[in-house]
Write a structure and sequence with these properties.
The complex is a heterodimer of chains A (about 110) and B (about 270). The model of chain A has no long low-confidence stretch (mean pLDDT about 95). Chain A is elongated and about 60 Å long. With about 110 residues, chain A is mainly beta. Chain A contains no helices and 8 strands. Helix content of chain A is about 0%, strand content about 55%. Chain B is mainly alpha-helical and about 270 residues long. Chain B folds into 3 domains: about 1-30, no CATH class; about 40-55 and about 165-270, Cytochrome Bc1 Complex, Chain D, domain 2 (Orthogonal Bundle); about 65-150, Cytochrome c-like domain (Cytochrome Bc1 Complex, Chain D, domain 2, Orthogonal Bundle), CATH 1.10.760. Helices cover about 40% and strands about 5% of the residues of chain B. Chain B has 11 helices and 7 strands. In chain B, the strands form 3 sheets. In chain B, strands 6-5-7 form a 3-stranded mixed sheet. Classes of the chains: A mainly beta (about 110), B mainly alpha (about 270). At the A-B interface, strand 1 of A face helix 3 of B.
Chain lengths: ~110, ~270
């Protein structure tokens, strides 16, 4: 079952750079493996990840088959104003997951 | 005594060959050590992790094992099968009732007339008190419940076995640990007591302490039990794998916990 874990500071000072950590549960099956009977395991990966800060895209990543299960993505952004951080993951087989975190800028 | 030294060969022309063989084996074994690692020289596998893996274990939101812990918490409160009873209905709040439990398992079970590990204890609860089907080993739900219970003992020392009835099983575990096995013909102790800190091929030989199970193993891309890890080692030795839940694996688990007594529980640990 997919479920994201988000770690952002509750409060940051205006203009300060802060770290955002995201972890999502996903098998990240690369599509290059075979079962013991020779059947190919179809690719099943997260392909894209976005982060929107008050509706504005601040980070985007394309994920590839070489990335391990349960992708952990961390990045930084600058605190401008209080609001929400929206996260979105999409992938193979119609995979789609979202998460929201709030942040207070003082 | 050096376990790798072959038994003395003194008959005729084999002497030189045996001596050369002994040299080769000594080169593998390094200097002879005492049988057990001195208590103050024991080190958790955590100490040998890289910076990034340490960071992963240190932060619950970076450790993927957290997914299993969260699932375990849900299962703990979920009613199972015929008895319509959840773990919480008997045991209450796991953060209180399960504190320190993982530190003293495997424990003696009169029903089994021997030790059982945490997974088996959970399954015993399921069959006896919840009238539910036992979960297969390495099943997601069993790992989730085990890691959730294990998590409650994080930071606590592994308990020294005080139950006299466990004594023969601890020594059985020791026998298995020191017995040469498989086509490779090595014992657990030859790597993990005598040669820890060195490398076997590219991989570092850890001391092999069970203080963080179930672990999130990067090689597995998932969570796994101590029994799974032990079977991995046996596979590496090209030995016959003990079945999941077998008395051999439980005896080994018990011996390893006693070998690591007093060490801090890190469940759920991250390992390479």
């Amino acid at each position: 079952m997919a479920r994201p874990l988000i770690n952002v500071p509750v409060k940051v000072k205006r203009g300060e750079t802060f770290e955002i950590k995201t972890l999502i549960s996903h098998v990240m099956e690369p599509g290059y493996r075979f079962t013991t009977t020779g059947a190919r395991l179809p690719r099943d990966i997260v392909t894209s990840f976005w982060c929107l800060y008050n509706g504005v895209e601040v980070f985007r990543a394309d994920l590839s088959p070489a990335i391990a299960a349960n992708p952990f993505v961390t990045f930084f952004t600058v605190a401008t104003e209080s609001g929400t951080l929206e996260f979105k993951w999409t992938g193979d087989n119609g995979f789609s997951e979202t998460a929201v975190a709030t942040i207070a800028v003082e | 005594m050096n376990r790798l030294a072959p038994s003395p060969h003194t008959s005729g022309r084999h002497v030189i060959a045996a001596a050369m063989m002994a040299l080769v084996l000594l080169a593998v074994a390094g200097s002879a050590r005492s049988d057990d690692i001195p208590l103050d020289q024991r080190r958790s596998g955590y100490a040998d992790l890289g910076r990034d893996s340490k960071a992963m274990q240190d932060d619950d939101t970076a450790n993927p094992a957290t997914f299993w812990v969260l699932d375990g918490e849900v299962l703990w409160n979920q009613k199972a099968s015929a008895a319509d009873r959840s773990c919480a209905d008997c045991h209450g709040d796991a953060t209180v009732s399960m504190k320190g439990v993982a530190a003293r398992y495997p424990a003696f079970s009169p029903a089994h007339n021997g030790p059982i590990d945490l997974e088996q204890r959970i399954n015993l609860c399921r069959t006896e008190h919840q009238q539910a089907a036992p979960l297969p080993f390495e099943n997601h739900d069993l790992l989730a419940l085990t890691v959730y219970v294990g998590r409650q003992s994080r930071g606590m020392p592994i308990a020294e076995a005080s139950d006299e009835r466990l004594r023969p099983f601890i020594s059985r575990g020791r026998d298995l640990f020191t017995r040469r096995q498989g086509q490779i013909n090595l014992s657990c102790a030859q790597c993990h007591d005598d040669n820890w800190g060195k490398r076997v091929a590219g991989a570092l030989l850890p001391q092999g302490h069970p203080n963080g199970y179930p672990i999130y193993r990067l090689e597995w891309q998932g969570l796994g039990s101590l029994q799974r890890r032990l079977r991995n080692c046996l596979f590496g030795l090209r030995a016959e794998l003990y079945a999941f839940g077998s008395s051999e694996l439980v005896a080994l688990e018990l011996f390893l916990m006693q070998r690591a007594r007093g060490m801090t529980i890190e469940t759920p640990a991250v390992r390479p």
